[in-house]
Design a protein that fits this description.
The protein is mainly alpha-helical. It has 19 helices and no strands. It is a multi-pass membrane protein.
Length: 462
Amino acid sequence: MAAGFLQRERIIAPPGWSRWLVPPAALSIHLAIGQAYAWSVFKLPLANTMLEGNPAAGTLTALPFTLGIVMLGVSAAVFGTAVDRNGPRWAMFIATVCFSTGFLVSALGVWLGQYWMVIVGYGVIGGIGLGIGYISPVSTLIKWFPDRPGMATGLAIMGFGGGALIASPWSASMLSAFGATGDDAQASGIAMAFLVHGLVYAVFMSVGWLLIRVPADDWRPAGWHPAEAKTGSLITTANVSANNAIRTPQFWLLWVVLCFNVTAGIGILERASPIFQDYFPDAGTQIAAAAAGFVAILSLANMLGRFVWSSTSDLIGRKNIYRVYLGVGALLYLLITLLGNANQAVFLIASMLILSFYGGGFATVPAYLRDLFGTYQVGAIHGRLLTAWSTAGVLGPVIVNAIADAQIAAGVEGPGRYTLAFSIMIGLLVVGFICNELIRPVDERYHEPAEAVADRTGAKAA
């Protein structure tokens, strides 16, 4: 068990405590760990200093980020049950320690000229902080907002998508101020930037674990009653353990749904700038700026989609919103494939919607899990499901980049470089759509006895 003030029993909210303090606590964690999407800011300074002249500099500078995302999925799956058992304060504290320590170890590695310490610090230690931090507020938010779970999780996970919008300019300005950019760039400037990141994020994330509270077992939102709120056939009032959840077909159907939805979104996001330039090469000298603007707009669509679509799922249901993500997403990919570069405005709108569905899929899935498996170990189940993200993070870029490279080698120009890749994305989204249609309520044989749930969560003692 977690010790002292980190224990779940120490953070049960007193009567009258406002549940609206929980989203800011969750955001303090997600806005911090969302820095991972801004790692590219460090790539060139590292290549020009620590790795200058190294022919593998491009691969080596990407390795901390790649390993961090892999560790996010692994640590979320491995530690998910401990997060639910020990409570959100323990989890947020561990996430803070790991994520901040990752930066501090990286700073030391740069000072000592040992790049392997950057890989271990940011990629492994920081990656564990990413995984635990990502899932730490999920089950707590759902328990505080049983009337609007999609809105609550969407608000927090929007922070992960928006973290880079803060971190990217902040990190870039810091690197410049510390002399880590330009022709006379110094590695010591990168070390200073890493050090400041570690210290500032430690303080910022501490707001989350100090502020977080869990509701008393008998707490309910004013005027809300579980029996009256059960309006969808998939919504359960029972609970399923994480170990039992992975034995159900529902878990694996949803795993495929999330994996293919993410694969389709990341297929555009990961190669956004080259795609735009291949589709619209006539932008002339402004092509680089236009492509950069395209990337920024897609990032904004990704962030806003996490909140807008997840909140919408509270009104129309989780299954219906995934019908939109997958079905409409497939039609949008088909539109881009058939239309080519005939209309830049349509291309832009379609791409923005696809990326908003990508972000919305991340934010909606915790509420979908809650509908299917209850709140008992939803954090642990979410952690296991995030392995779909790790898989898609490899699958999407491989499909788009490998096919595009082959088409370029064959002399194909323009949108034709992506026709086959986008056709594959359409097929994956159709398969995901079918899997979503096959999801049914979880069989009662997987349900946990009410007494066991109360004992294991400490509800009786509380």
